[in-house]
Specification:
The protein is an alpha+beta fold and 282 residues long. It contains twelve helices and eight strands. Helix 2 packs across helix 6 and helix 8 packs across helix 12.
């Protein structure tokens, strides 16, 4: 234990996980309030307008078809009271094949906006807020991408096949994870919550090899690597902590590092295609 401060792991690690869980919990969307009668009426009028004018391209459930998915669209999610959706509806996007709906009045567009936002809220209640609603959205409504494109990404640009195989660890994965949002999270962020813990998920443990200045090498699950300190859990069950200034090097091994590196690179189309491909692995 040269140069190291030895602490009993249980209380320190429990405190870290507890505080991180509080932080992670704050990432969930705020549970929405019940719509007023006026809002509910606007949403119903908007629903009728959507089914009449928009569903043929964007799908009856807004998850896309010939037109883009409006549930996951950056534009619809960033819209505030129609400031982004309104101009697209009234002016169209001719270059992308969307006609202008200039015949719709401002009040009708406001109703349409209200309906789109209400459907996004329902989707989030099903999939993003714990206990919001039963997660009963069928995978068929979420699998709006191209399975062929997802497969090409799996074996190509995504480099997924470097570590995974549809006939090995991913065999029948869609049958093993019937909840579509769980399946989606598994390939986007297999570590799950960002709460700090040496073991994010069974079989996913970040380890480190710490070489001290006297040449001693200590290895074990990584507990902390930052703020001027590095900590690991030793084979003796104790936490070993050193100031970074007292160590020669720290070599970290994260089994899901490739997924973490991909997080800022995913775009909506790639995620939808990958999910749709994984849904074929029954």
């Amino acid at each position: 234990m040269s140069g190291g401060t030895v602490l009993k792991s249980f209380s320190a690690l429990a405190a870290i996980i507890f505080l991180s869980a509080l932080s992670a919990g704050a990432q969930y969307p705020v549970y929405p309030s019940k719509p007023t009668p006026e809002q509910a009426a606007a949403e119903q009028r908007g629903k009728a307008l959507f089914q009449q004018n928009c569903a043929v391209c964007h799908g009856a459930n807004l998850t896309g078809g010939r037109g883009p998915d409006l549930i996951r669209s950056d534009l619809t999610r960033q819209d505030k009271n129609g400031n982004l959706i309104g101009p697209v509806v009234s002016q169209g996007r001719i270059e992308k094949g969307m006609p202008a709906f200039s015949q719709l009045s401002q009040s009708q567009i406001a109703d349409l906006v209200a309906y789109i936002h209400s459907e996004i809220t329902v989707f989030d209640l099903h999939t993003r807020i714990p206990g919001g609603y039963p997660n009963d959205i069928p995978p068929s409504q979420l699998a709006t991408g191209s399975a062929a494109a997802g497969k090409a990404f799996f074996y190509g640009a995504g480099h997924c096949s470097d570590c995974h195989s549809p006939t090995g660890d991913l065999a029948h994965i869609a049958s093993r994870y019937l909840d579509p949002t769980t399946l989606e999270q598994l390939f986007i962020s297999p570590a799950g919550t960002l709460a700090f813990s040496p073991t994010y998920r069974k079989g996913v443990t970040i380890t480190a090899s710490v070489t001290l200045k006297d040449g001693t090498i200590m290895e074990g699950p990584l507990l902390e690597n930052g703020g001027g300190y590095v900590s690991i859990q030793g084979s003796d069950g104790w936490t070993h902590t050193w100031p970074l200034s007292d160590v020669k090097s720290v070599a970290v091994h994260n089994p899901v590092q490739a997924h973490i590196d991909m997080l800022p690179k995913w775009n909506n189309e790639e995620m939808h295609n990958m999910f749709t491909y994984l849904e074929t692995l029954k």
